[in-house]
Amino acid sequence: WARKAGPGTTRQFDQAMLRALTRRRLLEIDLEEGVRQGQFHVVYQPQVHLQSGQIIGVEALLRWQHPELGPVSPAEFIPIAEESGLIEPLGAFALSEACRTVRGWNLPLRLAVNVSPIQVERGSVIEAVEAALRGSGLPPAQLDLELVESLFLGQADQVAASISHLRGLGCGLALDDFGSGYSSLGYIPRFPFSKIKIDRSFVEHVHEDRGSAAIVRSVVELARGFDITVIAEGIETRAQEEAVRRLGCDIGQGYLYGRPMSGKELLALQHAAA
Ligand code: C2E
Ligand code: MG
Ligand code: MG
Ligand code: MG
What we know:
This protein has helices at residues 7-37, 74-84, 87-105, 117-121, 124-136, 157-169, 200-203, 210-225, 238-246, 263-273, and strands at residues 40-49, 55-66, 70-72, 110-114, 143-148, 172-178, 195-198, 229-232, 251-253. The chain is an alpha/beta fold.
């Protein structure tokens, strides 16, 4: 088909492909050195109690400042880190760094940290969480681990074992990006989730689209039955906030309340609010 499209088109296609491949290859190579050289840091996004408007916690999010390319998005580097296995040291870094920072604030704020399926499937998440808690002195009950849906769809004994071990430590378990993938509710009763985070794609039109509102309402209903807290992700406007609050969500997170920011900025924001 390439020949039919004409030589010009073919060359353009090849160059775009090559550029994408080159960048990916470059990032693969640089990731390892980046981890070793400490090019990663953690930023914090507030989570707000929808009834009171108070900040009740933060989500820790990784950032990579590449020496030549500048900031690289986690949407780009996390999949590469997962493929190469570097997600294990990187995920351990995010956990220990975030626990240390939040412990240092000495405020009654919860901390949520994202955990990759790879860390759970290989079991290394347990040592990473235990080391982060030990090293920081953060009480386990203050920590939520955010896990994605794909982890729960297969038959995986290692997953179930790791999950109940983490729960046994006293950590909370949040189901992240709920509804973005397979949206099967069947696995929810089988795992001890303490929170469900409704994916941004449902929050985006929740104030104007009956379908989105109906989905949010049924997630809230399901969660109530299992005593699970519901977080709405990606709230950008007051109209969205009002809609998810009315539908019964407990917590909101999104640009309306604050972008992911440095620990210092988060602390200043919290002091200004208090
Ligand atoms: P996530 O865990 O679902 O995190 C929420 C993402 O939505 C963040 O993107 C956040 O900046 C963005 N966001 C928050 N509020 C809004 C909003 O109002 N509007 C819009 N448009 N976006 C909003 P970010 O920081 O780029 O992270 C992307 C993803 O990368 C995360 O999605 C998570 O899956 C992954 N990630 C980030 N840090 C880590 C980490 O330490 N470990 C692992 N395994 N994954 C991570
Ligand atoms: Mg998350
Ligand atoms: Mg999410
Ligand atoms: Mg996401």
